[in-house]
Amino acid sequence: MSERNKKSGNKKxxxxxxxxxxxFSKSSKKPFxxxxxxxxxxxxxxxxxxxxxxxxxKFIANAGxxxxxxxxxxxxxxIVEVNGKIITEMGYKVxxxxxxxxxxxxxxxEKKRYVLLNKPKDFITTMNxxxxxxxxxxxxxxxxxxxxxxxxxxxxxxxxVLLFTNDGDLAKKLTHPRYEVKKIYHxxxxxxxDVEQIKALHAGVDLxxxxxxxxxxxxxxxxxxxxxxxxxIHSGKNRVVRRMFEAVGYKVTRLDRVKFAGLTKKDLxxxxxxxxxxxxxxxxxxG
Length: 287
Hints:
Blueprint: E1 54-55, H1 56-62, H2 68-76, E2 80-82, E3 85-86, E4 93-94, E5 100-102, E6 105-106, E7 114-119, H3 136-139, E8 149-150, E9 158-165, H4 168-175, E10 183-189, H5 195-203, E11 205-206, E12 212-213, E13 217-220, E14 228-233, H6 240-247, E15 252-260, E16 263-264, E17 273-275, H7 278-286
Parallel strand pairs: 9-15
Antiparallel strand pairs: 1-4, 2-3, 2-5, 5-6, 7-9, 7-17, 8-9, 10-14, 10-15, 11-12, 13-14, 15-16
Helix pairs in contact: 1-2
């Protein structure tokens, strides 16, 4: 059961700059709405791993044996069996309930899992850390028995939406530059920012490594003394938001990702997780 199911009480949640941003609103005059909503129980069960036929090489790859290309080599070599029959045919499809063996051992398939975390500060996005620092995997360790991985990274001091899955195909899609997956960040800087710097972010800046990048959209959040900015971007470069603001002369003091590929942290308190719904998973696959 999700760790979200704790009673939040009747007290009004305190407002912090790290939790105010929700995203750009199409219907509101204010482009960036402040205030994170109170926690409510959300529905959504993990999905089964396979409901239709799937290519044999993908089946093997999804089981974590090897890549699809390497699976083709295994199939050609004659060491893969389906229901007791050696298969060497490229493009052969496995049906639900089929028994697949590799080198005499049955391949155990995993259910596909999709877990969304509202990441807190001081956790690093890695599987393990040689220095003993806390990792995001510790926060989602009770979400499922399958081994899941973070999709992309958030640095140690960045908070917000972080997706975990064991669906390698979807993870690659969400991180590949070709798909231009949108992210929205709530950014707080060390001093007031003006419209000229916002224009510069739209026009594009050169990062410290020489890469040129620009935001898709950036707007100063009202009533924040020009210290907070809503930023929409599709670039997946390392620490790109912090580096962009550094390029226009500002230091980011708080950074919160409030939206990733259409997923938000609505009703998800900091440090807690939930499973995606079937509808959300379908949306990610179709996007």
